[in-house]
Amino acid sequence: MSVSSFNFAIVRPPSKSCIHGLRAADTGAPVHETFIAQHEQYTDALRSQGLEIVELQALEAFPDSVFVEDVALCLPQGVILLRPGAPSRAGEVAASRDELAHIFADRLHALREGHVDGGDIMLTDRELIIGLSSRTNEPGVRALERLVAPWGYRIRSGPTPKGVLHFKSDSSYLGDNTVLCTSRLATTGVFDGYDVIETPSGEEGAANALRINDVVLIPTGYPETHRVVAERGFAVETIDISEAAKLDGGLSCMSLRLMRP
Ligand code: CIR
User: Fold this and answer.
1) How far apart are alpha carbons 37 and 40 in whole angstroms?
2) Following DSSP, what letter does each residue of the chain receive, concatenated?
3) Annotation says 166 is catalytic
4) pLDDT tens, position by position, 132-166
5) For the domain bounded by 8-258, which CATH number is listed?
6) Between 20 and 30 A from 250 (CA), which of 64, 66, 144, 205?
7) Cα–ligand 1 centroid distance for 243 (angstroms)
8) pTM
9) Which residue has a Cα nearest atom 8 of ligand 1?
10) Is residue 1 scored above 80 in pLDDT?
11) List 39, 115, 166, 226, catalytic entry
12) Ligand 1: which atom is nearest the Cα of residue 84?
């Protein structure tokens, strides 16, 4: 079973408080109504790939809570509640615990030390690569390793380019041993041994793509990336995520994906 095969996803709509979400550069606050509409299109895109969707309640107390990927790691063997590195996001874990326990019951586990954001975790067909970033640290990586090593996962840490929020802001695993990433991340050698597609210059924002079953979703506005990914034989679809992007969010950030038995 490929790590890009999914039949289930969890999403959480943006709250009205999203206007206060974290961002490295202020290009304007997201417009809530537009964000809701784009989030619905995103959810529909997952649904049209055959995924069953569970939509959690919007959380007004947490402006960044639409980015559910950062709160948990979903693996077939179990789901791990993470410890996001931004103080304003730490409470999202407690706010999600009961909802996720309801879905995953005794398969729900918790990271106890350090910090790891889900946006820094890349699962490939052979390993978990964890990007060290301003949100994810060594104690977190070691604590995560203790949880997943017994399930047979090999863990390797990698660099996140300076000024980049998450490891996966600059990269995505497309399946078939292929990674899409920025050239600044490719030059670190972290993906040596993988087939690497570099985002064309000026299109670094397309590096956070999302392979779901037979398609690769990329954000709208990146025609050269669309072309090079399609040229490698992938079916590509585009989604407008302009409002998430204002908060440094990408396609992977807005769902937790899983293949349920
Ligand atoms: C944050 O800074 O935490 C949010 N504004 C964006 C999180 C994006 N999540 C992700 O890349 N996995």
Assistant:
1) 5
2) --TT--SEEEE-PPPGGGGG---SS-S-PPPHHHHHHHHHHHHHHHHHTT-EEEEPPP-TT-TTTT-GGGGEEEETTEEEE-B-SSGGGTHHHHHHHHHHHHHHGGGEEE--SS-B-GGGEEE-SS-EEEEE-SS--HHHHHHHHHHHGGGT--EEEEE--TT-S-GGGSEEEEETTEEEE-HHHHTTTTTTTSEEEEPPTT-GGGSS-EEETTEEEEETT-HHHHHHHHHTT-EEEEE--HHHHTTT--TGGG-EEE---
3) yes
4) 999 999 999 999 999 999 999 999 999 999 999 99
5) 3.75.10.10
6) 144
7) 12
8) 0.97
9) 249
10) no
11) 166
12) 3
Place of tokens 């390793």: 145
What pLDDT is attached to residue 200? 98
Please work out whether the CB of residue 247 comes within 6 Å of at least one atom of ligand 1. yes
Interatomic CA distance for residues 210 and 72, integer angstroms: 17
Relative to the CA of 168, which ligand 1 atom is closest?
Answer: 11
Q: Are 73 and 79 in contact (CB under 8 A)?
A: yes
Tokens of 197: 């597609």
Q: Is 249 in the pocket of ligand 1 (CB under 6 A)?
A: yes
Distance CA 45, CA 212 (A): 9
Give me the phi and psi of 44, to 5 degrees please: -65, -35
Angle made by CA atoms 226, 42, 85, in degrees to the nearest 5: 95
Q: Which residues of 51-90 are buried (b: 16+ CB within 10 A; e: fewer)?
A: beeeebebbeebbbbbbbbbbbbbbeeebbbbbbbeeebe
Nearest-atom index, ligand 1, CA of 250: 11
How does pLDDT run across 102-137, given as a tens digit for each residue? 999 999 999 999 999 999 999 999 999 999 999 999
